[in-house]
Amino acid sequence: MSILIAGGAGYIGSHMVDSLVNQGKDVVVIDNLSTGHKQAINSLAKFYFGDTRNKEFLRDVFKKENIEAVVHFDAFSLVPESVVKPLKYFDDNLVGIITLLEVMKEYDCEKIVFSSSAATYGIPDKNPIKEDFPLKPINPYGDTKVMMEKIMQWCNKAYGLKWVALRYFNAAGAKEDGSLGEDHRPETHLIPRILQVALEQRDHIDIYGNDYNTPDGTNVRDYVHVLDLVDAHVLALNYLNDGKESRSFNLGSSTGFSVKEIVETARKVTGKKIPAKIAARRGGDPDSLVADSTDARKLLGWKPKYDDVYKIIETAWIWSKKHPNGFDE
Ligand code: UFG
Fold this sequence. Notes:
This is UDP-glucose 4-epimerase. 39% of the residues lie in helices and 18% in strands. It contains ten helices and 14 strands.
């Protein structure tokens, strides 16, 4: 029996594939490589190139492979892009999961672990955020994630689909040996952009706004290591195998760090000056987003190992130094 990883060439998906293969599991990857990288897929996994929206492609994979469960990472995930290209996001993210669930049903595959996001909460009334807070996304990306969760909920009611949605806060870091890491094009995320300054690929880092309602005026986020996210997916698969209730879980360290604190920590990690300039707000950024991950800890048994941002940035720095041009080298 194999585990199917949809989007296994992407940042978090590729770390998941690598971890499962190293645990001796049979892993099948599907990816259309629109944002992922073939080089990121562990060579011991079986790779099928294709699009999750293509039913015939999926049927072919399910026919050839004995899939016991799916982990679904495949989605477009750039918030600013989703605001200007909403149809691209609704098409890829929604048509993708609907097609995948249809084919899973045809082949009696009934378990799915799904990448959701803190973007489902929009601007929360308070922090830390619990799973039962209202879902009020403020961009199309977040809306697609809420809809994808709802689609799974209704399939659970209709025919017993077993699902777990993991709402990541800010995924960061890399595999410790620097062989896998984050390579988005364009790169919009804070930590890799800061490290591009440390590598002298950028002159400075723009800090998007210092007049937020936070202690130092810059946005506060909850950074969680990619390998801790991977652990949570493995635990979520076990949770479903144990027949437990389908639901969503927050995944965050439960500690918030401001943009300024992240820049300061990156200076310590890299020993580089990393010039920073205050720039205009980016638009659509909530003041603070910090997870209450009590449920994931209690019910999944999740214990994040990378419990401070220094360690998280350190792993990202090892990756950035080894792969200054991402997977192109
Ligand atoms: N930021 C800067 N300068 C930069 C880049 C980012 O100041 O050059 C700031 C942002 O304004 C934000 C913080 O750094 O306050 C983190 O920004 P990221 O782009 O790294 O991450 P986001 O918090 O915007 O987004 C992440 C995921 C999304 C997800 C969201 C949910 O990338 O997929 O968390 O909170 F939707």
